[in-house]
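Escalated from tier 1: zinc ion holo job.
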Amino acid sequence: MAKIGMDYGHGGSDPGAVYSGRRESADVLRLGLAITDKLRAAGLTVGESRNGDTAVSLMQRSRLSNERADEYFLSIHRNAFRPETAKGAEVFVHPTASDDAVNLARSIQSALTAVGFVDRGVKRANFYVLRETRAPAVLLEVGFVDNSEDNDLFDREFDNIVSGVSQAVLTHIGQSGLHVNKPSLQADLEVLCQHGILQSPAYWEQNATTGQTVRGDYVAVLIQRIAAYLRNLEN
Ligand SMILES: [Zn+2]
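Tier 2 regenerated the structure:
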């Protein structure tokens, strides 16, 4: 099962952004824990950099993820600028991020704008956890802590934010064909060719992999041939 690293920003002696008694560290812990619950309920293995109000260094956050060999890494934050001026959600990736990370960031950003956050877009930044974490990494800024409208939205739409972000991750994992490893894909394609089920292994090797797409009519032919082969075996 896919392994996800969940990183709830700040914590302990570092509250993150603070505005009229509201702490970023508490908001992102509450939100992150709820997303983690959803992902675990869907069968994913989730590792966390903290699960209470404790301080964790940036170095530890990335190191923990790298040690767990996460397949994706989500860092949850809330933004701040000047009281009651900026609002909206944005998702960051590293300047050298893979398409895989960018696509995940886009899906999550869509989920955040769908619940009502102003769309500040997917952005690139050289943040420590994005740079030092090996898994495709995204950093969410779920509205501004120093904006009352964003805080109202955060509280009112909390459940929808949780299910939207979780669904974006689950859908992305489904589409990205995780756990495909190249040598075994080649060996499997060879077997299918030997049995006349496939004729163009190069096409499948190139396209049946993370981040690529395969034509639906080709998949239909593949399914028909596998079914025909199995029926033959039964007879
Ligand atoms: Zn933060």
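The pocket of zinc ion is lined by residues 9-10, 16, 24, 77 (CB under 6 Å).
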